[in-house]
Automatic annotation (TrEMBL):
Protein name, per record: Flagellar hook-associated protein 3 FlgL
Coiled-coil boundaries: none
Classification via Pfam families: Flagellin_C, Flagellin_N
The keyword Ribosomal protein is assigned to this record: no
Amino acid sequence: MIRISSQQIFNGGINRLQGINSNLVDTQQQISTGKKVNKPSDDPVAAARILKLDQELRQNDSYTRNATLADNRLKQEENALQSSVDIIQRVRELTVQAGSGSLSANDRQSIAAELKERLGQLANITNTQDASGEYIFSGFQGSTQAFAKNDEGNWVYQGDEGQRKLEIDEGVTVPISDHGKGIFVDVPRSVSVENRESDDGYISGLEVVDEDALRDASPSDAPRKSIYLAVDSNNKVIEVDEDGNPTTPPKEFGDAGEEIDVYGMKMTVNDAVDGDTFEIGINRKQSIFGTIEKLVDGLESGAKGSDRGNAEYDALIAESLTNLDNAQEKIILKQTELGGRLNAVESTTAFLEDSGLYTKEIRSQLQDVDYAEAISNLSFQSFVLQAAQQSFAQVSRLSLFDRL
């Protein structure tokens, strides 16, 4: 015979009631929080999985914020570049207008005045700041103004050549800035007469007619920056070195005063005498600011009138147009590059959004409570608890004295 003491009956009943009440409390907590798993002990495997999914969502949110920042920065740069193109186009129109032979000195002064205004507008655009106050074209030197005037009053670049990048997904980075030196300063310059050791001689009609021949004269492995020409005692145009000595082997291009071809460049050497030397600049670069500043100086100097003045003025207009076209082309190429980056950001943002929704769906399946099921369980558990309480109350009153 097994003997069960009253104490055992009471302990067993109380433990049973506590267990049923604990389940009831858990169900009530699930309904109040909307979560099936409120503590690891509820479902250790699901709790670990939910924790990992939460970490993935936080990382996803961080990447999404970076993608949004990258999108804003790139669109701001794109707008600035488009504004620059518009200004350069207007400057080009003014340059074409300045090339008209019917303009008076006052007309050229008026054009120069508008060019100065456009130059100031371009400087403002290149000094665009983002929402945090950093200059977007200054490279890593965001707190430094990208372009400023030097002591001579010319606009110069003050930033560095750094390029900022952001990680917009795991292993995926995108550049969000471009330094102004690469866009507005390192612009290919038209072939031009750089300087000359001549009081009266000058070069007119300088034009590149055979780019292949010019490239052959300046191989990529050893590019030349200048070609030096001189007039000898026989009135022949010859090639010399930087010190004025004839090259070896000697190179003769033709007679001074007649149109000659020099490495694919057509030109005429005028009013030159024995010993006059000219430097033709090739493979040079000039900032868009320098191009406009030089054009303004030429318009304000009023050098037209003499044959030499007219030739130099015509050369200035031709060089300026080429340089403006080169600057515009460089900016348009950068715009194309920005378009590719924006597409990458857009596609990554869409992927992050889809990935976040999928992760949230999985987490919901593991964590979110089924209210209909939970309420049904709560009702059943309340009924069981009530029945257990009534049963325990009846059992706890049993006594042998009740049978006497």
